[in-house]
# Entry
Amino acid sequence: MNNRISGNGADTDDAATPGPTGINVFGLVSITGTLITGNVIEDEADDIVANTPGQVNVHLNDLLGGDNDVGVDNKGPGKVDATENWWGCPQGPAEDPCSYVKDFDQSQSMRFEVDYVLEGDCFLRRNHCRSL
# Structure
């Protein structure tokens, strides 16, 4: 919680990630109550990777990977609730040049939404101004 994460390497072996990853949640059994919140993650291929049968909650983070990078990658069978995050631009995930989401089975196991408010000439998110 409340960390600045940048420039990591890829995880290997059991908990392998597709590339450099900010936060990797890996588990073979269901872990309940996992909450990732209030972090700034940048310069990673995947900002957050979840590979667990349990639900992972990802809220109020700045996922600044960019247009070719994944904000949240759900590689496991569990659900990921990734609502109320900043995806690097006002359009939200899946829109260039924002970070995007990946879901291993393309099911409805990933929830996300845009979290910003337009005010004047900037986007406000949790009292942070993002210039237009």
Summary: The chain has one domain: 4-131. Residues 78 and 95 are 24 Å apart (CA to CA). Residues 4-131 form one domain.
